[in-house]
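USER:
Make up one protein:

ASSISTANT:
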Amino acid sequence: MSATPHRKVLVIAYYFPPMGLSGVQRTLKFVKYLPEYGWQPTVLTVTPTGYFAQDYSLLDEIHPQKVTVERVGSLDPNRFFRKKGVVKMPSERWRKILTFISDTFFIPDNKIGWKKKAFAAASKLFEEQRYDVIFATAPPFTDLLIGAALAKKFKKPLVVDYRDPWLAYPTKYYPTPLHRWKNYRLEKDVLKTASRIITTNRRVKELILKRYKFLEYHDVTILPQGYDPADFLQDKLPVPPKKKMRITHAGIFYGDRTPAHFLKALKKVFAEHSALKGQIEATFIGIFQDEYLNMIRDMGLEESVTVTGYLDHRPCVQHIMSADVLWLMLNNDKQSPGKFYEYLGARKPILACVPDGFIRQTLKEAEGGVIVDPADVDGIAAAIVEYHHQFVSNTLPRPKEEIVTKYDRVVLTNELSKILGFLVD
């Protein structure tokens, strides 16, 4: 590792602290550790704006590295809530309506109003200092348009980072074939401009290579999500003496992600094993819509379920560490939720309600949990009962260490630094 960064990378990331939620973690951790590998990042992001969560403590992680963060305003819908700060997440019904409106009038997304200002600010940065490479991460996919425009103007290599797929984004709507075609053309242009493409999983890589025949296999590199080992060195959160098995979920529910099947399974467990009521508790960390709070009440689970609301990253990790079992829910094989890898980093058993795909395969390799189809209420209930048996006998499994360490963000950042260095050299 190099103690003195001497190469410069411009990182384009609309989602960045003080915004919270999992979408900021990947970029933040890359930026945190790149200086250890000879790279000095400058982050171009939006000025503080209205968002569903804020976590100013995340910025403390990059202060020691003296990472420069340039902020520029945006003419997007979030701007109207900038004075409010934290915005309440809409119900699932309203989220779908708002998404439909957004995808109808904004291409590729409603952050397109940031492009002009961000491009102007980035051009000024290029005039002031030399950047060796541009790194743009998405969503929003407007970030990739900005990166491509800069790469063309300044003749610098561009690395595009797919945290989620573009055309096949699970919650994206295409009101007409024209909307889909325009997104396709934009993505194609970005990929023709890019010097290297990074995805978080094999499924997205396959989708890209299948759709764009001009790309070669080596043009797309898989750099998975991960966990920061430093997050797990902190003191544990003080918790009451354990008398119950605690199952914890961290993250938000939207689209097809719902706690409904898990809650039905928990209710089934208590109905069929009355002695377990009072012996098992569930904790939900993160934004939790009113419709799901009502669901808990309607099922009579108030005494067995705790909802913390959104927590800053540090106490969130502390809660994860205080859990006995961690629950993951995902209904597609394209997204790569960062919390799954933090679950692995916590070395806790995982109850994974996921479809066939890379997440299921990773968990099988790690031998670190039980895998159930997302809507299999009976299967989830059986897993909860089995985990409780293991909890009582102190035989809860741990994922295999050789699999867990593959997702160390320090190691992954080293791999990114090699990709950047290859393009420059």
